[in-house]
Amino acid sequence: MVTKIDHIGIAVKDLNESLKFYEDVLGLKAEGTEVVEEQKVKVAFLPLGDSEVELLESTEEDGPIAKYIAKKGEGIQHIAYRVDDIEKAIEDMKKKGIRMIDEKPRYGAGGAKIAFLHPKSTHGVLVELCERK
Length: 133
Ligand code: ZN
Known about the structure:
Blueprint: E1 4-11, H1 15-25, E2 33-36, E3 41-48, E4 51-58, H2 64-72, E5 75-82, H3 86-95, E6 106-108, E7 112-117, E8 127-131
Parallel strand pairs: 1-4, 5-8
Antiparallel strand pairs: 1-5, 2-3, 3-4, 6-7, 7-8
């Protein structure tokens, strides 16, 4: 099933501002930034050991990250688990009665294939499945 924690997704109001903490204080290094239009976010990945921190800033006022911050404030927004075969993983989840937000994989930053599970099926955590080559 899942093989490791791929990344932790953190919703921030201002990517550049938040990088001061992650880079200057924690000493991580961002691998550039990417805008994912479909999800209305600008993201930065900061590798750390075998995993990464993903910082997400909304590019639109009605984007999912903007809504998340309006409701809950900045903070951990999702946990992403690595899978080898996302199509198979989605089928497995559905067979086990898990409610999927994405029934089909969609494009994620860095060319990953991703799919979200509904927090109602995961004890309150927005879980992302992530396949990378
Ligand atoms: Zn993510």
